[in-house]
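agent> Task received from the user: take the single chain below, predict its 3D structure, and emit C-alpha cells. No templates, no multimer pairing.
agent> Plan: (1) validate residues, (2) run structure prediction, (3) serialize to C-alpha cells, (4) report one or two observations.
agent> Step 1 OK, no nonstandard residues flagged.
tool_call: predict_structure(input=
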Amino acid sequence: MATCLQTLRSRVRPDTLKCLQRDFGSLAANRSNHGNNNNNNSNGEKRDKLEHLDFFFDVLNASATRRDAKQYLARFKPTIDKLKKPLVIHDAKEEKQQWQLHQSGVNLGQLYLPTQAAAATPTFSQHVEQEALVQRGAGEIHVALVCLRAPHLIDDETLDGIALTMAQLVRLEMQIVLVLNCEDEVVQKDESYKDVYRRQGGRIVAALEQHNNEGARYVDAALNVTSQEPMPASRPKVLGAVELGVPRLITEPLKRSAIPVIPAIAYDSTCKVQNVSVGGVMLALTRALSGLAAVSDPTDKLLEDTSVDRIIMLDPLGGLPTETRQDKAHVFVNLEQEYDMIRDEIQSCGKSSHHLDTLSLVRDCLALLPPASSALLISPEEAAISSHHSRKDPAIGITTRRQKNPLIHNLLTNKPLISSSLPAARLPTNEVVPSMSSESPTRSTLVKRGMPLMIVPDLRKTAWTPPTPGQPTIALDNHPDINFPRLVALIEDSFRRPLDAQHYLNRIKNRVAGVIIAGEYEGGAILTWEEPRTLATKSSGGNVEPGRLVPYLDKFAVLQRSQGSSGVADIVFQAMVRSCFPDGVCWRSRSNNPVNKWYFERSRGTWHLQDTQWTMFWTNSDLVADQERWEDYVSVCRNIEPSWADNKAKPD
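)
tool_result: status=success, residues=652
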C-alpha cells in the first residue's frame, strides 16, 4: 500500500499534493478509522483498506490545482463532531509517527501528516483565527441530490462501481440523497410501481452498504402529495405538487453519513400511495434541503443545516448531445446563455425528448440554488468505471490505465472533466463503456446557471468583418452597451496593474472588432483589427486592404475572484473562437506568463518571437502554410504597443 501511495504522489503536482495530503488525508483517515473501529471482521478491514486506497487514488488522480483545493476546502470543512476529536496542530516528530501507525498500521512517510484539519485550512483571509473558522459552518451538511434513472438497465458490476463512487463522495463530506426513477420499468412490466421501486431500492441499498461505512436506508414514506388538482397560474412552476412531509426520515440518516434511497412515490391526505413524477420529487427535495420549503413541524430545525451543492443525473443516455462538437457532446452548459440554443437544437435534430426534459428539470432545480451549485449529467458507466481497479485485457495482456472519476473531479473543482474551450484536436477520446440502452451514452455534461454573455456588435445582427477603409469602428468609451469604467476596472483587476486608458483608446481607435462581456463584467475580451507593419506605410486614415488586417485578441481578462471554478474564462474564450472568429484569431503573451499553459492547450499553434519576450498564439487551421499571412501575424504580434500606466514587466 505504501508503495502504491508513493507512486500516486509522483503523478500529482507537488503544490496540490501538499494541500491535498494534509487535509484530505487527515479527513479520510479519521472517517475510515471511525468506521473500522466498529468492524471486527478481518475481511471487512481488508476491504476498507483497499477502498481507502481507491479513495486516495481518485482524489489524487482528479489533478485538482492548488486553487481548486483551496476553493473546495473553503466550502467543505469537516466538523469537530465528525472528527471525534479537537483540532490540534502536532509538531513533534514522534507524535507524527505514532499517529501514522495508529491510523493505518503502516509507516506511510509524509503522506498522512497530522497537520491542521480541513476546517481551518486555506481561506483567502490571512488573519482569521482558527476558532472562528471551526465555528463558521460547523454542522452544515452538504448534499448532492442524485437521480438514478432506469436501474434495471444497470448490471451488478456497474451498480457496485456507482456505490463505491457514492461512498467516496461521502468521505469527501458530500452527503448523498439518491432518488430512484423506475418509470421505464413500471411501464414495461406487469407489476405495481410500489413493488418495482421496493425491489430496485433493495438492490441499490445492498450495493451501497458494501462500501459506505454508515450504510444506506430505503425511505418510501417521506414525501406527501399536496394536491392532485392542476396548479393555479399564480403558483410558480418550480413549486410542483410534491412536498417533503417527514424531513427527519432523510436528515437523520444524512447526519450520520448514511445514504437515503427515495423512490418516486408519495402519500396523499388519505394515506394512499401515489406514483409521482421524478421531476416533482427532485424539485421538492431541492426546495426542502436548501431551506426554501416551509417546515410543517416548527420544532424540526434539521433542514436549516443542509445545503444542496450538486444535482447529479445518472442516466443511461449520459450527457446532452450536440452536433457542433467533434465528440458529439456538450461538456459544459451555461444556462443563461445557451438554454434556448440547446433546446432548439434538440428539437430540430430529432433527439430524444428525454434530453430536453432532463435539461428543463436541471434548470428548475438550479434556479432554486446559489450560483456556485452545479448539475452533472452522466451515464452510470462513466460514473462507475473509474472507481474500478485497472482492467487487463486477457487477449493481449495489456493493463489499461484507470480513468479519472468525473464525479470526484467535479466535487473538487466544480468544473467538467475536460474544458469546453479546448479545440477539437485536443479532446480526449470517449472511453465510456457502451450502455445497455438502445442509444450509446454521450460524455458527461456539467450544467451551471451561469451568466449572461454580451457580444458587441451583436452577432445575430451582423458578423464581425474587417472594417471598410475610412469607416470608424465602435468606440469603447462612447457605446450605449459598454460601461467603459467597469471594463477598465475588469482589466486592471485581472492584470493587477493600472491601464493608461487614454493611451489605450488612442491606440485602438478605429481598430475595434468587438467586445465580449461575461456576467456583470466578471470576464471579457477586446478584439481588434491590426495592420501589419510588413505593409507599405499607410495614411492615418488606415486605407489598408481589409483582407490584410489581422484579427487580434488585444485584452483577455477575468476578475481574480471569478478565476478558477466559475468557468468565466471558458465561456469568453469559447464565444471568441466559435462565434466571433471561427476562422482564426491570434494573440501574444509574455513567455513567462503563468497563463501560457492554458493558452497552449487552446491554440492551434505557438511561436516564440525571436529576440523578444513574446510568444505568439493562433487558432487558424492553416496559418503556417500561408507565408504572407504568417508574416502579417508575426509583424502584428511583434509591434503591438502596450498601454500600461506603469513600467513594470508584467504579463500582457
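agent> Step 4: summary for the user.
The radius of gyration is 27 Å.
agent> Done.
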